[in-house]
Amino acid sequence: MELTSQQTLPVAQAQAWEALNDISLLKECIPGCDGITATGENLYEVLITAAIGPVKAKFKGKLQLENLQPPNSYTLRFEGQGGAAGHGKGTAEVRLESAGPRSTVLHYTAKATVGGKIAQLGSRLVDMAAQKMATEFFDTFNTKLQARYQVAPEPLPAVVAPAPQGLVAKLLAWLKRLFGG
Fold this sequence. Notes:
This protein is an alpha+beta fold and 181 residues long. It has one domain: Alpha-D-Glucose-1,6-Bisphosphate, Chain A, domain 4 (2-Layer Sandwich), CATH 3.30.530. Helix content is 33%, strand content 41%. It has five helices and seven strands, in the order E-H-H-E-E-E-E-E-E-H-H-H. The protein has helices at residues 13-20, 23-29, 117-120, 123-148, 166-179; strands at 2-9, 33-40, 43-52, 55-69, 73-81, 87-98, 104-115. A seven-stranded antiparallel beta sheet has the order 1-7-6-5-4-3-2. Helix 2 crosses helix 4. The longest helix is centred in the C-terminal third of the chain and has 26 residues, at 123-148. The N and C termini lie far apart (64 Å).
């Protein structure tokens, strides 16, 4: 499986880097995360409950940060066991790019392999579950960043009502002429 995407974060690059290295914040944002514990320098034990199609399991894994280049990039190396549900391992390249004083683009490419029951589900279902988890993570992460750094969410674009058409338009025009409006 390979997942490549980018997300715009509503904070400066240094703030994004700080947040991506805040274990308590990440625990709150990772869907199904039951715990992240530091076990060494840039080494963590992670507990996650995940459902992929009909298979739901608790995964215990190791996460290691490598090639750290603060505040620009790092590599995540991970592996996990989910008992009878299966196992997975892979890497993710994460790169931050400043897009202004209050905007950072996070680029990532994750590559993973899975085995056991999870692998029997098929790559399409596994890919969809991974994409769903990524979407949920970034939705929560952006909300937490906005709260932490007191960033106002982007305003929604104004909706302009379409001009009346046909019979209604003619009726409105007639009423305006009739009443001098």
